[in-house]
Amino acid sequence: MSSKQSDIMPNELGNAKSLIQDLAGYRFKDENILLDALDTTGLRVQQSNQRLALLGDAILKFIILDDWYPTGTPKGAGNDHVSRIGSNANLAAAARLHGIEAYVLTNPGHRGPVSQATLSTTVEAIIGAVYLDSEKDLDAVHTFMEALGLTVPGTGNVPAQNRKTLTAAFSSRALDGVLRFVRYQVNMARHAITSYRIRMRKHNIHMRMADSENAIHTCRRGCVP
């Protein structure tokens, strides 16, 4: 890391913190995790920005779908929201609109505007950073996303308690589905066993009848003078 970059970082970090706190009303407890999210150079911690972005991308999609699900609209609408809100173009536009672009840390030799892909990754990384720094508070993440315009329109902010209830409902439905599938498989297995037993009984009866007929024929042949 160059001395020039290390001199700039503290000031840039302070400004970035102020910006995000103004946007979402969230205060970072650990400044390093925010710096990891903004640092696209990999000079501080290798792939720190990309690792946070991978986490943030998953959380972004979850919150979008968590907002969409109570609307009762078809599955296609949920996919459309994820594709539109979570697209690189939309995330990069949000970063530019709200001034995040100015605080993205790039390589010292970089010139010109920050690329769309880098901005998109940085927004996802910040979402991941908020999630971890807030001790996995999805409501805090939702507030930040809403400030950037990254939530489903018309759904509003879902309170943390309601979000936990919705998550529990998803888990309950998933468990019910698994249990129904298991019951179905058990019933199918029972039906198969019963059918097999019936076939075996019929087979045994036929074998006994055949043995009896053979015995009768043998007896008749032996009894004929």
Automatic annotation (TrEMBL):
Domain called RNase III: residue spans: 17-135
Family matches, as CDD domains: RIBOc (cd00593)
InterPro entries per the UniProt record, alphabetical: RNase_III_dom, RNase_III_sf
Protein species of origin: Hortaea werneckii
Annotated SUPFAM superfamilies: RNase III domain-like
Organismal lineage: Eukaryota, Fungi, Dikarya, Ascomycota, Pezizomycotina
Molecular-function annotations in GO: ribonuclease III activity
Gene3D superfamilies cross-referenced by the UniProt entry: Ribonuclease III domain
Protein's recorded name: RNase III domain-containing protein
Biological process annotations from GO: RNA processing
